[in-house]
Amino acid sequence: MTGDEIRSLVAPLVEAEGLELYDVEDTGGVLRVLVDRPGGIDLDAVAAATRLVSDAIDEVDALEGPTTLEVSSPGLERPLRTPAHFTRALGTRINVKTVPASDGERRFEGTLVDADEEGITVEADSGVRALGYAEIERARTVFEWGGQPRPGGPKPGRSKKAAGARTGSGGAAPGPATAKKQASATRPPGDAQTQEGRAGS
């Protein structure tokens, strides 16, 4: 199944749990499903969404070969891929990396001041940049610690390298709450923060 087909499959399931399907990303070997809700999401909600998504995918045999299913909150520094993502981020600071063929510096930060179905406009330190979506390789929001330098430690949103998953709400560090279903034959002992099992079998 394609990412869009998986999105159509799981969106009604997570919405019935009071969650929003923020994004689906199939990177080949890892299927990443991002869910969210107003006020943030906790690990219990992520774990419940993981069970629903895993069961639905297994029922229709949606995945080919060993695949890790990762269900997570988007985190405070969240990826921006679709026009809807950019529209929701209007007025916030974002980090952008453009494709190699794009004019100007490839990496920059600035305030997202406009977004529509064609592209975005960013007020960067170097000036205003208008980009079509085809010119954007990667983009994500930037979490600002009240104007203070960000403390050391794992970078936000890098849940695989963090000591443990955290909630995506505004109180603590900005890493996403994450639960995983990995392609292993049995479920090994886990802690309260990360769950592992089998997906796509």
Q: Can you put this structure into words, describing what you see?
A:
The structure is a single chain. This protein is of the alpha+beta class and 201 residues long. Helix content is 19%, strand content 28%. The protein has helices at 3-16, 43-60, 83-88, and strands at 20-26, 30-36, 68-72, 93-98, 107-115, 119-124, 127-132, 136-141, 178-181. A 5-stranded antiparallel β-sheet has the order 7-6-5-4-8. The protein is globular. Residues 148-174 and 182-201 have low confidence and may be disordered.
Main features:
single chain, 201 residues, SH3 type barrels, GMP Synthetase, Chain A, domain 3, alpha+beta, 9 strands, 5-stranded antiparallel sheet
What's the total count of β strands? 9
Terminal-residue CA separation: 14 Å
Largest sheet: 5 strands, antiparallel
The number of domains: 2
CATH superfamily of the largest domain, by name, is RimP-like superfamily, N-terminal
Q: Regions with pLDDT < 50 over 5+ consecutive residues?
A: 148-174, 182-201
CATH topology of the largest domain: GMP Synthetase, Chain A, domain 3
Strand order of the largest sheet: 7-6-5-4-8
Categorize the overall geometry.
globular
Whole-number mean pLDDT: 76
CATH class of the largest domain reads Alpha Beta
Coarse structural class? alpha+beta
Helix content percent band: 10-25%
CATH architecture grouping of the largest domain: 2-Layer Sandwich
Number of helices: 3
- Percentage of residues in strands: 25-35%
Task: Supply Rg.
Answer: 18 Å
- From N to C, what is the helix and strand string? HEEHEHEEEEEE
